[in-house]
Amino acid sequence: MTTARNTHFSAAHARPHTSTRPATRQSNLGTGLAATDSGYIGKPTCEKCRTDEFIYLESYIPPTYRHDGSVAALGEVAYTCTRCEDFSAHSVPVTWTPPGWYLG
User: Fold this and answer.
1) From CA 32, how far away is CA 55, in angstroms rounded?
2) How far is CA 3 from each of CA 9, 10, 19, 78, rounded to the nearest angstrom?
3) Are 92 and 71 in contact (CB under 8 A)?
4) Bridge-partner residues for 90, per DSSP?
5) Confidence check: pLDDT of 7 > 60
6) How far is residue 50's CA from residue 78's CA, in Å, rounded to a whole number?
7) CA distance 44 to 76
8) 8-state DSSP, 13
9) Are 94 and 35 in contact (CB under 8 A)?
10) At residue 82, does pLDDT exceed 70?
11) What pLDDT shows up at residue 99?
12) Per-residue b/e over 43-70, b at no fewer than 16 CB within 10 Å?
């Protein structure tokens, strides 16, 4: 099986690539930068209670990788401590995953 190839290229149909919308706001979602505390990278732990015993995970975004296997963006986690009701969100180390979580 061979791939089809268009041999009749016409400059009349060529369009320059332009952005359809101007970038009006920056989004940190999926970039490895957490919206709440982008400078901190660590396991989810309540700063007030000094433990992870009462952590309720709100969301987890796994890290993304490049084709060569290097890390493109760190994972992100958002959580609430059910003991003191403190909310936090930040990047997590590549080696950390939520308990019982697997990519299958």
Assistant:
1) 21
2) 17, 20, 30, 46
3) no
4) 77
5) no
6) 17
7) 10
8) G
9) no
10) yes
11) 84
12) ebebeeeeeeeebeeeebbbbeeeeeee
Alpha helix locations (H) across the chain? none
Q: How many residues does the chain have?
A: 104
Alpha-carbon distance of 101 to 75, in angstroms, equals 13
Under 8 Å between Cβ of 95 and 75: no
User: 83 forms bridges with which residues in the sheet?
Assistant: none
Bridge partners, residue 97, by sequence: none
Mean per-residue pLDDT of the chain: 74
Higher pLDDT pick, 58 / 1: 58
At residue 75 the predicted structure's pLDDT band, cuts being 50, 70 and 90, is very high
- At 14 the pLDDT is 53
At residue 32, does pLDDT exceed 80?
no
The residue behind tokens 């060529």 is: 14
Q: Is 17 helix (H, G, I), strand (E, B) or coil?
A: coil
Q: What percent of the chain has pLDDT over 90?
A: 47
